Amino acid sequence: MSWITGLAFVFFAPFVGGLIAGFDRKITARLQGRIGPPILQPFYDVGKLLQKDNLVVRRSQHLYTEFFFVLTIFTGALFFAGGDLLLVIFSLAMAGVFFALGGYKASSPYSFIGAQREVLQMVSYEPAVLLAAVGMYMVTGSFKVSVIAAYPKPLVMLLPGIFFAFFFILPVKFRKSPFDLSTSHHAHQEIVKGITTEISGKTLALVEIAHWYEYVFVLGMGYLFFASNIWLGLVMTFVIFELLLVVDNSTARVRWQAMMASSWIVALVAGGLNILYLMLRH
Amino acid sequence: MGMLSKSPWVIHYDGSSCNGCDIEVLAALMPRFDVERFGVVNTGNPKHADILLLTGSINEQNKPVVLNIYEQMPNPKVVLAVGICATSGGIFRECYNVLGGADKVLPVDVYVPGCAVRPEAIIDAVVKGVGILEQKRAAMLAAQKA
Ligand code: SF4
Fold first, then answer.
1. Whose CA is nearest to atom 3 of ligand 1?
2. What is the 3-state composition of chain B as percent helix, strand, coil, each rounded to the nearest 5?
């Protein structure tokens, strides 16, 4: 891993992420007994959004969205370049903060609620992500992604609890049911459109592409738990994603209190016990 | 075919109606007809929508609502009047508060008759609508150049 993989992420992640998003919609449709859109549908959507007018509520709102876009790419590039996991997590948080600020800035009640929920989602997934970094450090002795990925054994063997906590917050990060609070792809289960309500046209396209980058990055983090063998890693990443879709389609949205309580409890109990085990191991 | 016709996002508003057409619109999203095959997404947000799908007639109370939705949609956009209520007022035409069809307040692009409309007709209307969407986009580009 080096700056080459980081650069590869910047250029290829949108394609991979878009395909993942298309795959997601197809599988979701099949699970619901529908044919579903073509796999390339997300690319069509973004292509269309680029051709639409951009309705501006406030200019500064775009600035925040652009920051979100750039920081999301930075997060992923840093991760794939084998950088410091802690720095990756903090720049991920920064990106999220800018996204939420964009929602607040639009001064519409709908995007305001969406932005508040986005913040709540960040608060919910942060502990599990941090614990994952801590656990990986305790096993491999380094926060560097390149060192963690080079660890000879699958990390999940030593970090089962932390992996469970990480899997639990995946729907939060992917904004999927039961934790699709801030915005959702499923119409009519949403307060208009949550945080993206006031975002339209090209800016919305930017948000979509940023989400593709996010998809690849988050799945990359899942891969890290199985990184000792590249094939095992890829297969397990695929399995994780499939499970995520099944969860998405078989659950209903919960209240934010339930989201926060459950993700914190899972992170602290499963992750905490796992860390305790690592400490006692020596 | 451009990207516009591959991803028409629809916002649906039901005016003064018996809800028959309303239900048929939702039926078009169900597994049997599954309009998402063509990239159609039923969105609740006018700022994300390309197509305004109106069912039911226009009355004094929903006139400002319909206008507001229409004005919040980014260009290019098209309006479909779906069901006989939306095209002319239908059986509600004689009511003291009903103004008539959607074209009393908005420029309607596609009229779809039927009481209630069949989901096939709705899908047909959306397909017609995306054609007009492309034309409007071309007109927009031409206007920008001029
Ligand atoms: S056209 Fe007929 S079915 Fe449709 S809303 Fe009007 S009365 Fe109901």
1. B116
2. 45, 20, 35
Cα gap A245→A27, rounded to integer Å: 8
A136-177 per-position pLDDT tens digit: 888 888 888 888 888 888 888 888 888 899 888 888 888 777
For residue B128, give both structure tokens. 């017609």
CA B132 to centroid of ligand 1, rounded, Å: 25
Q: How many contacts, defined by CB atoms under 8 Å, are there between A and B?
A: 79
Residue A31: per-residue pLDDT: 85
Provide the terminal-to-terminal Cα distance of chain B, rounded to the nearest Å: 24
- What the block records as the tokens of A183 is 């915005």
- For A278, phi then psi, to 5°, come to -65, -35
Which residues in chain A have their CB less than 8 angstroms from residue B144's CB? none
pLDDT tens digits, one per residue of B21-57: 888 888 887 778 888 888 888 888 888 888 999 998 9
The CATH class that applies to domain B3-145 reads: alpha beta
Q: Looking up tokens 């049911």, which residue turns up? A: A177
- ipTM comes to 0.84
Cβ of residue B95 lying under 6 Å from some atom of ligand 1: no
Ligand 1 within 6 A of B20 CB?
yes
CA distance A196 to chain B (A): 9
CB A224 within 8 A of CB A148: yes
Q: Are strands B78-82 and B51-55 parallel, antiparallel or unpaired?
A: parallel
- A53 at the B interface (CB within 8 A)? yes
Domain boundaries, chain B: 3-145
Q: Which amino acid is at A185?
A: H
Distance from the alpha carbon of residue B17 to the mean position of ligand 1, in angstroms: 6
